């Protein structure tokens, strides 16, 4: 039982770290959009490929995120990721407490 608990806790932490890493990718992509980098740079292309599909979906479903030439879709995505991360972290903590009472 303890082994399963440890694996679930570790998976939750790894997913939390991955979500935080993706937040940084979004921030870097948003900052790069202000300076117009070389579009043929492999790093810029990778960042664009990682973020633009999600930005496009948010812009399509929530048209109010593009106001007066300012794209707020990165902010919406970051808030959603923080929400998912909090729910995930609290669920893993609750599961940890619950399974410890059973063991």
Overview of the molecule:
The structure is a single chain. With 103 residues, the chain is mainly alpha-helical. It has one domain. Helix content is 82%, strand content 4%. A two-stranded antiparallel ribbon has the order 1-2. Helix 1 crosses helix 2 and helix 1 packs antiparallel against helix 3. The radius of gyration is 18 Å and the shape is elongated. The mean pLDDT is 88.
Characterize the overall form.
Answer: elongated
Largest sheet: 2 strands, antiparallel
Strand order of the largest sheet: 1-2
The N- and C-terminal alpha carbons lie at a distance of 7 Å
Tally of alpha and pi helices: 3
Class by SSE composition: mainly alpha
The secondary-structure element order is: HHEEH
- Number of distinct beta strands: 2
Number of domains: 1
Helix content: over 70%
* Proportion of residues in extended strands: under 5%
Q: What is the residue-mean pLDDT, rounded to a whole number?
A: 88
* Low-confidence runs: none
Structural Rg? 18 Å
Show the helix and strand layout.
Blueprint: H1 2-35, H2 42-61, E1 66-67, E2 70-71, H3 73-102
Antiparallel strand pairs: 1-2
Helix pairs in contact: 1-2, 1-3, 2-3
In short:
The protein has three helices and two strands, in the order H-H-E-E-H. The chain has 103 residues and is mostly helical.
Give descriptors for this structure.
two-stranded antiparallel sheet, 82% helix
